[in-house]
Amino acid sequence: MSISVVILAAGQGTRMKSTKPKVLHEISGKAMLFHAIDVSKEITDDITVVLSHQYERVESAIKESYQGIKFHKQDTELYPGTGGAMKGLSYQNDKVLILNGDMPLITPQSLESLIDGDGDIHMSVIEMDDPTGYGRVVIKDSRVLEIVEQKDCTSKQLNIATVNAGIYLIKKEMLDKYIPALDNNNAQSEYYLTDIIKMAVDDGKIIKPVFVKEEEFKGVNSKLDLAKAEEIMQRRIRESLMMAGVTMRLPETIYIDIRARFEGESILESGVSILGHSHIINSHIKSNSVVEDATVRDSDIGPMARIRPASDIADTHIGNFVEVKKSTLRGVKAGHLSYLGDATIDRGSNIGAGVITCNYDGKSKYQTTIGKNVFVGSDSQLVAPVDIADDVLIAAGTTVSKDVAKGELAISRVPLKRVAGFFDKFFGK
Ligand code: UD1
Ligand code: MG
Fold first, then answer.
1. In the structure, what pLDDT confidence band is assigned to residue 218 with cuts at 50, 70 and 90?
2. DSSP-assigned states of every residue in 232-292
3. CA 135–ligand 2 middle distance (angstroms)
4. Superfamily holding 3-211
C-alpha cells in the first residue's frame, strides 16, 4: 500500500509558553516531532513536514537527524489554519496520511485501523469525557456529516462528546479537489482542513468515523500535557523492557530515555535514570544512580552513582558517590566517593575512597591511564596527563604528578609532625 505522509507542525504552540518551537519539546529524550517522523518512516518514504513558526530552527533540527524529509513552508499570514497548511502540497502516492507534529503517543499499530480500507476519507474520532477545545464530529447513522470547531459550535453542538482526533487518511484526489476550495468564513478566520469533510459529504461521499484511543491520539499543547504524555511514554518504555527481561524495583520511580538499549538481564532499582543513548548489558544499577549516554556491561553501579557520557564500563564495581566521565573501565573496583574523568583503567585495579583524576587545568582536559592491578590508595590525586603502569601501589594521600613505572610504589607525603602537650597549651587546662 502506498501512502504519503504529511506532518502538520506549523502552529505557533502559544500555549507551551516557550521560546522553543512546540514540536521540538522532548518526550523521553526525543522531540515530539521526531516521534511522529519515526512512526511515518514505518509507513512510507514520502514524508512532508509543514513548518512556518521558527521554520529554520525546526528544519535544521530535522536535517540533523533525518535524511529525505521534504519541507513545506506554510504562508500563515495569507493562509492560516490546518487547511492553509495543506495548500500547495503535492504527494507521490494516492493516499495521504495527515499527522500532527504534537501527537507523540501515536504508534504504527494505533494507525492501522485508520489506514485499513479504501474509503475516500478516513477520519479518527475520540469519545471524550471532556471535549473542550476539540472540533466536534456530527455523526448520523454511523456516518460523519461534518466537523464543527469549538468556536463555531452552537450550544447544542458543544455537548457532542465525539471529537476529531485530527488525524486523517485522505485520497490525494480529494485533497486536490477540496483544499483549493476552502474558505475562511469562520470564527477564527482560518482555513480549516476539517471543512473538507462537509464538502465531501455534500458531494455524496460516505465517511465512516474510525474510533481511536484517547491515550494514543491526544495532542500536546501545554507543558502540563507534555508531562502527562511523558508519563504515558515512560510507562510504555518500562513495560516493554520488563517484558524483555529487565527487573525494576518500584518501576514508576524509574526514568528511561526512549533511545536507551538493554541486553540480557539487568536490574534497575528505584529512582534510577537511564538517559540518552545508554546501553545496559547484564548489569545492576542501584537506587538513585544516573547513567547518561554510557555503556555498562556486566557491572554494578551505585547506589547514588553518576555515569556520564562516553563512559564505557565492563566487569566493574562502582559504589556510592562515584562520578565517571568519558572513561573506559575494565574489571575495576571504585567503591566510594571518586571522580574518574578522561581515564582508562585496566583489570584488577582498585580505586580507593576519595580518589580524584585531576583532568582539567582550567584550559584543557587531559588523560589518566591506569594499568592492570594498580592499587590507588584513598584520597590520592592523579594529576593528568599521567600514566600509571601495571602492578603499581600508590600510597594513600599521594599526589601523583609524574608517570609511575611498572612495579613501583608512589608515595608523596608531608612528614608527620607530633608536638607533645600542644592541646593543653593551646586550649588551656
Ligand atoms: C485541530 C482540528 C480539530 C481537532 C484538533 C485535534 C482544525 C481546524 N481543527 O484543532 O477539529 O479536534 O485539531 O487536535 O483542523 N498547524 C499548522 N498550521 C496552522 C495551524 C496548525 O501546521 O496554521 C498544525 C499544528 O502545528 C498542529 C496541528 O496543525 O500540529 C493542529 O493544530 P492545532 O492548532 O493544535 O489544532 P486545533 O486548532 O486545536
Ligand atoms: Mg488551532
1. confident
2. HHHHHHHHHHHHTT-EESSGGG-EE-TT-EEES--EE-TT-EEETT-EEES-EE-TT-EEE
3. 10
4. Spore Coat Polysaccharide Biosynthesis Protein SpsA; Chain A (3.90.550.10)
